[in-house]
Amino acid sequence: MKDTLSKEALLEARQLISPHIHQTPVLQSRALNKISGAELFFKCENFQKTGSFKARGATHAVLRLSDEEKKRGVATHSSGNHGQALAWAAQKLGIPCHVVMPENAPEVKIAAVRNYGAEVHLCAPNLPAREAGLKAVQDEFGSVFIPPYNHPNIIAGQSTAAAELLDEIPDLDLIITPVGGGGLLAGTALSTHYFAERCQVIAGEPEGANDAFLSFYSGERVKEHQSQTIADGLLTTLGEINFPIIQELVSDIITVSETEIIEALKLIYQRLKIVVEPSSAVAFAAILQQAERYENRRIGIILSGGNVDLAKLPF
């Protein structure tokens, strides 16, 4: 692994960001254990600053900026959670922040980015439009690009969620995360590789946004993909830095239907009594789909965030 993603680098990232973020709780439910046939440990990143795990990576990336870069400010493109996290991290350090967002992003996420003090630039809901919008912002303001997932400092920051989980529940057989761009999955895979080698890492992905699944099993990263899913946080395509880490250290990627995502989401609301967004339910949906395969295993599930538009809940 590169020095920026070494065991020492991940330990340093955790120490660096720990004063700024929450160490989120791990919840259990006897009812969900019974339904799944496994012993489940839910790492609740919906209780993280800004409502998702993205605060970890954004905080780490911003803290790593030079003084000159901080003066120029930061910019990114995001469907919501990374934009919120970067806006919040930038606000804490008193630096300017610009976020290019697709016009179909949930209104709750657009409003949150603005509430954290960032300037929002809306664009068409596709990657070329997002990249063009970002370039325009950088040309005008000289901002430093902080990508949502495709950067070592982001991956190292995201790795801290699994590191905390493994500290609290050290004898897990398996950790599962949702996968979109792959920052959380790559970071989780690295933490597990360094700190709990016996533990496997897998991912859940919507059937309607299955580029990571296709990339993983073809060996060729899918660069463009038309995605459609209720799990709006997972619409991005897999990052080029993230992909080889996932290839090397992840055991499987399981795709789930929209019906399975909604059913898993309902169970989390009903049994854990917490608010999560559909993307968070994807990993749990994968375990339910493969219940016989994972029966009697001790499984950590990272619930990625809770920034849901309550007016658009599917139940």
Automatic annotation (TrEMBL):
Keywords: Lyase, Magnesium, Pyridoxal phosphate. The keyword Transferase does not apply. Pfam families: PALP (PF00291). CDD domains: Thr-dehyd. SUPFAM superfamilies: Tryptophan synthase beta subunit-like PLP-dependent enzymes. GO terms for molecular function: ATP binding; L-serine ammonia-lyase activity; magnesium ion binding; pyridoxal phosphate binding; serine racemase activity; threonine racemase activity. Residues 17-305 form the Tryptophan synthase beta chain-like PALP domain. One of its GO terms (biological process) is D-serine biosynthetic process. PROSITE patterns: DEHYDRATASE_SER_THR (PS00165). Its cofactor is pyridoxal 5'-phosphate; Mn(2+); Mg(2+); Ca(2+). Gene3D superfamilies: 3.40.50.1100. The keyword Lyase applies. PANTHER family: SERINE / THREONINE RACEMASE FAMILY MEMBER (PTHR43050), SERINE RACEMASE (PTHR43050:SF1). Belongs to the serine/threonine dehydratase family. This is Pyridoxal-phosphate dependent enzyme. It comes from Croceimicrobium hydrocarbonivorans.
